[in-house]
Amino acid sequence: MNSKSQKIIINIEGRNYPNWKIDLKNKLNTLKSNNLEIDAENIDLSCKEISEIIEIANQYNCKIICFCSSSPKTIVSSQSLGYKSQFIESSSKNTSEINKRNPTFLKTHFHQGTVRSGEYIESPGDLLILGDVNPGANVSAEGNIIIWGRLLGIAHAGNKGNSKAKISALQLSPVQLRIANKVARGPKEKPQFGLAEQARIDSEEIIISPLETT
Question: What is the architecture of the domain spanning 109-210?
Answer without folding.
Answer: 3 Solenoid (2.160)
